[in-house]
Amino acid sequence: MKSVPAFPIADGADKRRYADQAYDKLESMISTLALRPGAPIVESDLIAHTGLGRTPTREALMRLVASGLIVQQPRRGLLVSDIRLAEHLDLLEARRVLERLIASTSARRATPQQREDLLGCARQMEAAGLAADLTAYMAADQALDHVNHAACRNPFAVAAVVPMAIQCRRFWYAYQHQGDMHEGARCHLVLTQAIAAGEPTAAAAASDMLMDYLRQYAQAVIA
Question: What pLDDT, in 10s, does the model give residues 1-10?
């Protein structure tokens, strides 16, 4: 008779969830500069940090490589990608198109709970801005993105925009002295209000307003 495993074997959904959790943790380390541009990737350290094991952490690393946030260098292994100032404005132009699509689609497709959650995240960003708490501000921004991406129900647009959003968060951490959390929070609140009201045209316009602000901020850094 075969012995019964002492612990339950994770099914596909569990594996996916663990990989997503590992990805979120590594994304946060990159965007907050805990893993700085050019830093070598030490897999054992990241496995210990995520606490989720080798397989989920490796899968998360593969996704980060595919998105360009981690790069493979000959004879140097995996490194965190650099922040390229000259390319950031191009990134924002591409992100603008995707964010407009996501915002207008979320306005049509979001559930009542998702609309409420989006407003809650924006209000958390406002509170963090008033408290000058960048960590809380970015955590609320990331949570808002998660809800918005789920609400739009367009995985192709989401897959394309997520690496850009992470690059923008990292850019903000690197050059936070140039940023204005109050204005950023205001733009996010206007966006979520339009989505919550189910107004696709207003949501698209609010998304453009947010991208305009991020472009002005980037131009101030680059100038």
Answer: 444 344 344 4
For 105, the token pair is: 């689609």
* Distant-in-sequence, close-in-space partners of 32: CB < 8 Å, separation ≥ 6: 135, 138, 169, 170, 173
86-222: CATH, from 1.20.120.530, 3.40.50.12100, 1.25.40.10, 3.40.50.150: 1.20.120.530
Q: What string of DSSP letters covers 24-48?
A: HHHHHHHHTTSS-TTPBP-HHHHHH
Neighbouring-strand partners of residue 72 = 78
**Whole-structure pTM value:** 0.81
Instruction: Give the fold, CATH level 3, of 12-80.
Output: Arc Repressor Mutant, subunit A (1.10.10)
Give the separation between CA 120 and CA 143, rounded to whole angstroms.
10
Q: Residue 71 forms beta bridges with which residues?
A: 79
Rounded to whole angstroms, the Cα distance separating 209 from 43 reads: 39
At 128, list the tokens.
Answer: 């963090």
